[in-house]
Every structure is written in C-alpha cells, then in structure tokens.
Amino acid sequence: MNLSSAIKAIRDANIAALSTAVNQNTDCFVEPAYLDDDGEVVVEGPYNLPCRADLITRIDGCPGDSVMVNSALVNVFADFEVIESNIPLTIGTFHWDNANFTASLNTETDLAPLIEWFYSWFDAADENEPDAYGLYGVTHFMSDPHFVEDKIEFTVDFGSAPEDVFFSLIHKLSLLGAKFVSVV
Fold it and tell me: Has residue 93 got a pLDDT over 90?
C-alpha cells in the first residue's frame, strides 16, 4: 500500500461515518465550532486552539446535544515507512478523527507555524461551503502540542478536511525541522 492510498482509505472511513450521522440527524448543526455567548469561537489551552463538534442536534432551532461520530478502524495495511517532504514518515493504523503524531523537533522550535497550519484548515470564519455530503472540509481539533525530550506530541481530528490536510501537516513539520514523524 502506498501513502496516498492509505490516507484515502482512512479519511473515507471517517467521511462515511460523518455523512451517515448527518443523514440520520437531519435537524442538526453540522461541524459547528464551539462558540461563547457572544458568538465568538471558544479557544482553550496555551495555544488558544478552537474545537468543532461533529454534530450538534437542534431543538426548536436552538443547540441541543453534541453528537460525537466515531469512524470505523481501517486496518487494511501493515505499518509502513515512507519518505514524505524529505523526512521519514511512519504510518501506523490510525483514525482520521484521532491521529496521534510524534515528531522529532528541537525543543526551541517556534510552534506558531504549526498552530497557523491548524487554523488555516479550521475555517474559524465558517466560509467553506458544504460538499455533496453536507460536510465543510474542516479540521475539528488539535491538542496542545507538548515536548517529551526531543520530540513533540499532539493529536489531530482532521474532521472532514480533504486528504491534502495530512500532507500539508507533514510538510509543515518538515519545514519546522522534524527529522522523522510517526502517526498512529
């Protein structure tokens, strides 16, 4: 299996789960960002990262319960390593909505470009139009990156973002000086 095929299979499983949930919950907010009482996107943690729900039910036009969609585990390949963006990339079995990243980075690395990467795919202004599945092509979550010795660790929920989101993240990590990246 090559990297593109693996990423497509993993993403497709999540898109299938999300689109099924949208079809089963016809009166819902799809991929909404969490907002405060003033309608501003809520941010948390040291990097001020926002978050999106998969779905929020609608009751009489008002937000109801958050619905978390879990994609099926795609285990159609054995772990493998490739060179992507000029660095070794190890791909294990992971969920599109729960990808755990480890990358070798100098602890002095400025992580602002990584945070900017996330925001660029998050679409905080909600400008993206829905696709044929009613999804918006956005990331949902990134945990605050933290260093463990000479490695950075963080988790990403790629939401309904296109496959390019994955490759752009690997490229961003390469530009930040990562010597290797692992995704499980």
Answer: no
